[in-house]
């Protein structure tokens, strides 16, 4: 009986080891992609907060830009995400609501 189970157990061990290696490799790739993406987002939000005029922040005040620079720089990727949803996306949505909607003029040919 042991002679029959030994090759099956060996194949199972090889399969399991290969599966674990594949999952580990995919996890490393996922961590790499999230790290690079988060760093790019962080740099983009730092540039946005520096270039954004004072009056383009929600509830603009005397030290609004300085506060957001500190939040984004000191908290890293988490601060960049907070800035994105609380300032950048919010202001973009407000600007889209204020923008006039282009009207579509249709021509109707009337037959007399």
Tell me the fraction of residues in β-strands, as a range: under 5%
Residue runs with pLDDT of under 50 for 5 or more positions: none
Q: Tell me, what's the shape?
A: rod-shaped
Instruction: Find the count of extended strands (DSSP E, 2+ residues).
Output: 0
Q: What is the string of helix and strand elements? A: HH
- Give the biggest sheet: none
- Compute the average pLDDT: 84
- What's the domain count? 1
**C-alpha termini separation:** 99 Å
Oligomerization status of the protein chains: single chain
**SS-based class:** mainly alpha
Can you describe this structure?
The protein has 112 residues and is mainly α. The protein has helices at 2-51, 64-98. The radius of gyration is 28 Å and the shape is rod-shaped. The mean pLDDT is 84.
In short:
The protein is mainly α and 112 residues long. The protein has two helices and no strands.
Properties at a glance:
rod-shaped; 112 residues; mainly alpha
Explain the layout of strands and helices.
Blueprint: H1 2-51, H2 64-98
């Amino acid at each position: 009986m042991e002679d029959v189970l030994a090759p099956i157990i060996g194949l199972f061990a090889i399969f399991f080891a290969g599966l674990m290696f594949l999952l580990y490799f995919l996890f490393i790739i996922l961590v790499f992609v999230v790290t690079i993406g988060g760093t790019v987002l962080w740099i983009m939000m730092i540039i946005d907060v520096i270039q954004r005029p004072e009056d383009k922040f929600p509830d603009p005040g005397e030290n609004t830009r300085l506060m957001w620079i500190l939040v984004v720089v000191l908290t890293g990727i988490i601060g960049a995400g907070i800035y994105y949803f609380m300032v950048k996306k919010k202001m973009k949505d407000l600007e889209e609501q204020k923008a006039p909607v282009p009207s579509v003029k249709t021509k109707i040919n009337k037959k007399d």
